[in-house]
Amino acid sequence: MLFTYTDMNKNQAQCDIERIGRLLIMTELAKNTGASVTNAGEYVIDQYCKQNDLNYTDLIIIEQYDDRSYEFPSETNRSIVTFTRNQNGKLAPTWQHITSEKFDEIVKQAEAEVW
Fold first, then answer.
1. Domain regions of the chain by residue span
2. In whole angstroms, what is the distance from residue 86 CA to residue 74 CA?
């Protein structure tokens, strides 16, 4: 699903979001003219959760760069993104790179969950 968000510079930006149960996959798009999902992930998640009445702590969030992210073929890159609230109450991300095999395992688990 194409998702439009407002980035930290108040620009309109877009990414693809796929939701499978409590798994949320944010994919950077080559046509995005705003901040990337890496640089604005906390804005994406905050706005998506508000629009869909979700709590980010209930979600498994994966950031993805694939063939839709670049104007040229490139290797797919995925990370699990964990958000915590900093001292100012803003979401702060941390990333953990995952392999394609780990990604497939997470997707299978999400598809099997009843949520």
1. 2-106
2. 34
